[in-house]
Amino acid sequence: MPNCLNPEDGYRLSIQLGLKALHSLSGELSFAAAPAADTLPALKTALSDCEAVVVGAGAGLSTAAGFTYSGARFERYFSDFKARFGIEDIYSGGFYPFPRAGIRWAWWARHIYFNRYVTAPLKVYPTLRALLEGRDYFVITTNVDHQFQKSGFAKERLFYTQGDYGLFQSVNSSIRQTFDNEEWTMQAMAAQGFVSNSQGVFDLPENAAVSMELPEDILPRCPLDGSEVTMNLRADDSFVEDEGWQRASAAYANFLTAHRRSRVLYLELGVGANTPVIIKYPFWALTLANPRATYACLNLKEAFAPQELAARSICLEGDVAQIITQLTASS
After folding, report:
1. Does residue 148 surpass a pLDDT of 50?
2. Which of 68, 169, 304, 312 is most buried, judged by most C-beta within 10 A?
């Protein structure tokens, strides 16, 4: 592995690897050439034969689990924001310039709650955990919805690179800590008029009338200095990489180093084109550097690998949830 300022910074180390490999590739790609069901036995064999699995999870995995950012979920819980501001989906709402802080935090309370503190509708994450049971594995993900932890994955085997919907950080750049927002989120949901249903999950009241603005006295503040807070999501250089993040980054680097010559399966799940430098390109680099490694790409519409890795790649195009379920059933 190449040198970097901190050999235990798995995040930047893997990006460095990926960018280096990308420059050496021809640019020719090998795409999934057979139905996923026909390729499934190859992936099953790779799982059985490998000594370690590195899972790289992107937004497509959570989408497959039912955490969709548009459609029915959005219309049910954010239709008032759509009517007033023209917001078309949950993702774009996170960037909307709301006119007042109370409105902005009412939006974010819902955004956080329905994508962090509820369990994904479909059992994709528990099924994946069952598939990895008893295997030496590590997970790197760009998802910020906490579904791996909620499904029972070991915390010490997870690296959330881009933050967590469940954390705030201060706008005061000298405070390099994060703060749990669960208590605040529950208070803010109740303040808008959401009610707890029989399963203990916040839902709309019978008349579906909820407020779009929070009162000043419950707007979130930093517990250390009373400053304003923002989400702990990687958007720019202000993103706080707290102690937990750094431990996870180091654990990821150590796992990669420990298995750099092993029979490793680099299992990419639902990674799109937004941030390929974090998972996809590093997985290509790690597979290229280790002739005993295999790269697998599961994606709804974009299952491919570099031509240089065609002989050691397994590309399955289709619903990631269905593929994982079928793979578990056949294991």
Report:
1. yes
2. 169
